[in-house]
Amino acid sequence: MAPIGLTDVAVTDFVLNQRNGVKGLVDVISPKTLPSRYVQLPEKRVTPEKLMIEATTTGKGGSLAPVIPVIDVSDWNNPNVAEEIYDASTTLGFFQIVNHGVSLDEQNKLRGVGRAFFDLSAEEKKRYWEESSVSETASYMTSFKPSMEAKLEWRDALKFDFKNRYDQVDFAATWPTVCRDEVVKHSDNMKPIGKKILEILMKNLNARMVEKTLMGSLRMNINYYPKCPEPKLAVGTGRHCDMNTLTLLLQDDIIGTLYARCGDKWLHVPPVMGALVVNIGDVLQILSNDRYKSAEHLVMANQFLSRVSFAYYLGPGYDSVIEPLREVLQNGEKPLYKATKYADYMKYYFGRPHSAGNKTIESVKLH
Ligand SMILES: O=C(O)CCC(=O)C(=O)O
Ligand SMILES: [Fe+2]
């Protein structure tokens, strides 16, 4: 039972209407039990039997459970790198890369300024709240689609849209000063890494690298997961696939609460020092006519420590039309997806809560 005062109405008012987010709830009220607005239905909870046990033998056969591959990309031209990236992208849809050239120092600076934003006063943060943000391209919010969620996700986020402003000198002028320089720097660091991976993935399809279709939009989320009184009952980010082409994630270096779908279980994506987590999004699955796998994933909550993560999303230009590539279909293969403008796909994606269940990609599937 939630303590008196933490009724659904009171929590909704404090977290959403008063724009304090879930971090505000923890900082100001510090509930000792999970308010019911956050208690997930039993089928949505990630219980131990739903987890895949890593690298242990499974009975007499002795086969190993899969692990998320960690790929050394110090030499992008090494054919083994392309092969490992291709293998991971066609199976789990998840891998990690190390020796990508972004130093630990830069990563830790970004983690520091990300936390610094969420540590600002409530008044300061509220200026960026969703639809009334003082910035057109930076917004602060909580959960995923609160107006449609019976149960909220235990997460706040600060979102950036680099749009096509990249070539404008002061495109970040309205962004929170506490983190904007590092966010811009991070984008400068991530863009070429994303491009390398996309080049490899296109080459393996014998397809052209069309930047506008593959990385014509660039967005980023700083996710903040406060410590949670009853993490077993909650979810940090509900299960979902990313809608874009490729996501590069700098996750927390200590708290490992990210899980990727593997068969009917959830596979841990452990923090690896200095690594970036890479996952395939819906658009690459569509373009490749199902060769690349858009991997479902979720984030759990943690009782003892807060966690920050930085998700950098490369995606098509908003007016690009997404459909299986000609090169992939040339041997008479049937397209599995209908042509869709990316802006329409995005609108549909953001119009439904994570808890809606069926995947967004199903909406463009040809039956
Ligand atoms: O926080 C994380 O580790 C992942 C967040 C995520 O899946 C997303 O922002 O799309
Ligand atoms: Fe995601």
TrEMBL record:
<dbReference type="Pfam" id="PF03171">
    <property type="entry name" value="2OG-FeII_Oxy"/>
</dbReference>
<keyword id="KW-0560">Oxidoreductase</keyword>
<dbReference type="InterPro" id="IPR026992">
    <property type="entry name" value="DIOX_N"/>
</dbReference>
<protein>
    <recommendedName>
        <fullName>Fe2OG dioxygenase domain-containing protein</fullName>
    </recommendedName>
</protein>
<dbReference type="GO" id="GO:0051213">
    <property type="term" value="F:dioxygenase activity"/>
</dbReference>
<keyword id="KW-0408">Iron</keyword>
<comment type="similarity">
    <text>Belongs to the iron/ascorbate-dependent oxidoreductase family.</text>
</comment>
<keyword id="KW-0479">Metal-binding</keyword>
<feature type="domain" description="Fe2OG dioxygenase">
    <location>
        <begin position="216"/>
        <end position="316"/>
    </location>
</feature>
<dbReference type="InterPro" id="IPR044861">
    <property type="entry name" value="IPNS-like_FE2OG_OXY"/>
</dbReference>
<dbReference type="InterPro" id="IPR005123">
    <property type="entry name" value="Oxoglu/Fe-dep_dioxygenase_dom"/>
</dbReference>
<dbReference type="InterPro" id="IPR027443">
    <property type="entry name" value="IPNS-like_sf"/>
</dbReference>
<dbReference type="Pfam" id="PF14226">
    <property type="entry name" value="DIOX_N"/>
</dbReference>
<dbReference type="GO" id="GO:0046872">
    <property type="term" value="F:metal ion binding"/>
</dbReference>
